[in-house]
Amino acid sequence: MKKRLLVTRRLPDEIHARAARDYDALLNPEDKLYSTEELVALSGEVDGFLVCLTDKLPRAAIDRFDPRLKVISTFSVGYEHVDAVAARERGIPVGNAPNGVTIATAEIAMLLMLGATRRAPEGERMISAKAWTGWTPMQLLGRRLDGKRLGIFGYGKIGQAVARRARAFDMEIHYHSRSRRPGSEEQGAIYHATLDALLAHSDVLSINAPSSPETKHIINARALALLPRGAIVINTARGDLVADEDLIAALKSRQVGYAGLDVFEGEPKHHPGYLDLDNVFLLPHMGTSAIEARIEMGNEALDNIDACFAGRKLPHAVN
Ligand code: DGY
What we know:
Elements: E1 4-7, H1 13-22, E2 24-26, H2 36-42, E3 48-51, H3 59-62, E4 71-74, H4 84-89, E5 94-95, H5 102-117, H6 120-128, E6 149-153, H7 157-167, E7 172-176, H8 183-186, E8 190-191, H9 195-200, E9 204-207, H10 221-226, E10 231-235, H11 244-253, E11 256-261, E12 280-282, H12 291-309
Parallel strand pairs: 1-2, 1-3, 3-4, 4-5, 6-7, 6-9, 7-8, 9-10, 10-11, 11-12
Helix pairs in contact: 1-12, 5-7
Bound molecules: (2R)-2,3-dihydroxypropanoic acid (DGY).
């Protein structure tokens, strides 16, 4: 008998086909968002959950899961929406999708970086508003990336992929992560033992660290004041690393020259103050929205489910 698997959101056809081939799959082609309460109820009807970052599974929900549910795998590298410790205490392994996201997210970081330094959103808005009156020598002057110092906060797979791409733009790479990386990963990047030291050396700051209690609002007024005046701030990680009020104040005072943000605290809500600013490039969490990424993410998430039901350790276990 096939195991019953809930796939909470609409995923690429290739992933639906694999899920339906190997499982009694409860798919969601209408892409309706399940509430946490609905997921608690469904834990008694299926053997596994393939969830997304929009599915909130706190301890209070996991503690009430039916014993039928044997595994949770998330279609994302971030897993802050699942209380993995509570799941472990219930004997439920949790896995994520750590690799498929890398290139697509690094590409969006480069898009934001280029858009912010060259003021592309303002140009786009000018044309959309039918306000462009023609080329002028001083119109929308930005800055080039070459020779600028890129500070990468969080030097995991995505941070390193951003570094590889930025090197092609002749940027000087600096980074801070919990520990210094081996030379094969540093590739000449300059390590800073503290985030403060990194900030002081970042003409462009790329946030690539995970969301955690330690990183919540770590990019706050104090941190932003350490950046060189006019620095660019790029966030493709998680919105809650940034204190929005503080970033908005820094953008208004031009201590931060421009922000390129793909993620927001409490998304899809976002601080309304961003909408009043011209020096922002805002995207609706599109870091991994490339079909190649989404197929790889789906396959990684399914690999976790397969391993669990084959009695093996999850290949991308997080708990
Ligand atoms: C992830 O995988 O955590 C991404 O944010 C999804 O886009």
